[in-house]
Specification:
Protein name: LPS kinase
Keywords: Kinase, Transferase
Shape: globular
Number of helices: 12
Number of strands: 14
Oligomer: single chain
Structural class: alpha+beta
Strand order of the largest sheet: 1-5-6-4-3-2
Strand content: 15-25%
Pfam family, one: Kdo
Radius of gyration: 24 Å
CATH superfamily of the largest domain: Transferase(Phosphotransferase) domain 1
GO molecular function: kinase activity
CATH architecture of the largest domain: Orthogonal Bundle
Largest sheet: 6 strands, antiparallel
């Protein structure tokens, strides 16, 4: 007996809509004409049908249609990645539905990654040219993070990644985990296999783009994957490098920790291993995520930012701390400087940016744009122009309507 078209079962994590009002009885490709919740967003290429639905405000979700059983498998992989603090889209649930032709399909529900871009947008939008070469470091960093956590991707490509602007850099987030496997750790063979797949796939992605727009010589399709691999190998070697520590050289331990923190990695533990020389030990560091500065900024201020944004802001807080220390002639805790920065810099700038800041994710990026503009103006003037003057000029140059409204008030 053929099943009636419609929803057969659904699992949704707490804190999200129940999605029962969606038109599960029709093919996913027909949702734009079947529900008012369907919205159009920029998207990358996908071998499976994907639609976006809105439940108001920032509550936007992606729905991907897969053969029966695969959505549950991918949901489990994404859930495990979230538990391991890996940069991937947030899994929300999965469903099983019957189609009008009697075929069963499974559907994966994920939260839309706010303020993100598929790689095609970065290449086809003239205003985002500066970010194209940043893809190399973003992809290399994403693969290193996955492999350190024991995650084998199996289908690494530009199409399976979303990118977020991060203080002039890019952050990369895994979108498609259909072929992913989670292990305690990966063998060198598994890592090599993942890198081989990556090289083939991203070369094809860039070849596709080169048919539409001219690429610079530094982004030639046949070299792109190899360039990512070289950056991956360099970062992997640095993170896993063993350091020999002699008796009385404890400073080497902190030096190593600071170097890894500067790369954004948080340290889980430090292992000291006998070398056979009683005066020397081998130090191995075990890193967790690449969000050291994000965690540090959140601990100090409660603000949520991307890694490069957080590093830039923390540098500003440290500069303020040094200035306050000189003025007061005594060392101040970083927490005191962070509070002063919040009240004297962050909050006034956010008030003046006002409606330019659309989301929480946008607030830190806008602030960092002002900081970058301040650096540009200060370089030209050969002196620190100050945050207020930089903000005035930023608004006048890039958002003159906003600047005029502020002057009118």
């Amino acid at each position: 007996m053929t099943e009636a078209p419609g929803l057969l079962s659904i699992l949704v994590r707490p804190g999200h809509p129940d999605f029962l009002d969606l038109p599960w009885e029709v093919d996913l490709a027909a949702w734009p004409g079947a529900t008012d919740r369907s919205i159009e967003l920029q998207r990358g290429l996908s071998r499976h049908e994907v639609q976006f639905v809105s439940y108001g405000g920032a509550d936007v979700y992606a729905v991907k249609e897969l053969p029966e059983g695969l959505a549950k498998k991918e949901y489990g992989a994404l859930l495990e990645m979230q538990d391991r603090s890996l940069p991937a889209v947030e899994p929300v649930g999965h469903a099983l539905a019957a189609r009008p032709d009697g075929v069963r399909v499974s559907l994966l529900l994920t939260r839309y990654l706010d303020a993100s871009h598929p790689y095609r947008v970065l290449f086809l939008n003239p205003g985002l040219e500066r970010y194209r070469e940043r893809l190399l470091d973003a992809m290399a960093g994403l693969l290193v993070r996955l492999h350190l956590a024991g995650a084998y991707w199996g289908d690494c490509s530009l199409s399976n990644v979303l990118f977020r602007r991060d203080a002039g850099q890019l952050g990369a987030y895994l979108v498609d985990a259909e072929t992913s496997e989670l292990h305690e750790s990966l063998s060198d063979g598994q890592r090599r296999q993942d890198l081989m797949i990556m090289e083939d796939n991203v070369g094809g992605d860039l070849l596709d783009i080169s048919m539409v727009t001219k690429l610079p010589d530094t982004l030639r399709p046949e070299r792109f994957g190899a360039n990512i691999r070289r950056r991956y190998e360099s970062l992997w070697t640095e993170v896993n490098r063993e350091v020999i520590v002699g008796v009385g050289e404890r400073w080497r331990i902190q030096e190593r920790v600071r170097a890894l923190n500067a790369l954004g990695f948080s340290i889980q533990e430090i292992k000291l291993i006998a070398t056979g020389d009683r005066d020397k030990l081998a130090m191995r560091t075990v890193v967790t995520d690449r969000d050291y500065h994000r965690h540090r900024l959140h601990d100090l201020t409660g603000l949520v930012a991307q890694e490069a944004q957080a590093e830039l802001i923390l540098n500003e807080i440290e500069e303020l701390k040094a200035r306050l220390t000189l003025e007061g002639r005594r060392e101040l805790p970083t927490s005191v400087a962070a509070f002063r920065w919040l009240t004297d810099s962050w909050e006034p700038v956010q008030r003046r940016l006002g409606s330019l800041v659309k989301t929480e994710a946008d607030a830190a990026e806008r602030y960092c744009q002002v900081l970058e503009h301040k650096w540009f103006l200060s370089e030209a003037a050969k002196a620190d122009v100050g945050l207020d003057a930089a903000l005035d000029d930023y608004l006048e140059r890039f958002h003159p309507r906003k600047s005029r409204k502020a002057r009118a008030r």
